[in-house]
Amino acid sequence: MNAPIQGWRRLLARLRPQRTRSLIMLGIDTGCHRWHTALNEGTGYRVRAFIDDEPWNHRTRIGDAPVHYPSEVLALALKHRVCALVEVQDNARPASTQHCSASSNDGEYRC
Q1: Which residue stretches of the chain are H helix?
Q2: In-domain check, residue 2
Q3: In this structure, are residues 48 and 24 in contact, taking their beta carbons and an 8 Å threshold?
């Protein structure tokens, strides 16, 4: 009796659309623009915000993602349920990705 239930769950999991994962990009240089374009072309990830400390870049947009100050990272991560912070170096590859998770017991958000 348990096997048919597991079979239905597997079938429903395949039919259910995959959830898009949210990212925050640290920086707004050329490499970040390239990764933003590449990530948004796929369906698995979406860049929700860029982080830059220059005041003249604040609240501008790169594609559909706004630029915010570094002090806003935690609030943005909570708001968008971000799975990673991505930093790009040398215009080529992500230098570091830090995975975050929310704790259901105490409501705390840990990176």
Answers
A1: 2-15, 30-41, 73-80
A2: no
A3: yes
Tally of domains in the chain: 1
Average pLDDT of the residues in 66-75:
96
Q: Is 14 within a domain? A: no
- The answer on pLDDT for 105 being more than 50 is no
Residue 86 belongs to what domain range?
Answer: 19-110
Q: Is residue 85 part of a domain?
A: yes
Q: Residue 30 pLDDT more than 90?
A: no
- Which contiguous run of DSSP H or E holds residue 65? strand 65-68
β-strands 109-110, 101-102 pairing: antiparallel
Model confidence band, residue 96 (pLDDT cutoffs 50, 70, 90):
very low
Can you tell me the distance from the alpha carbon of 80 to that of 27, in angstroms, rounded to the nearest whole number? 18
Q: Does the residue 98 lie in any domain?
A: yes
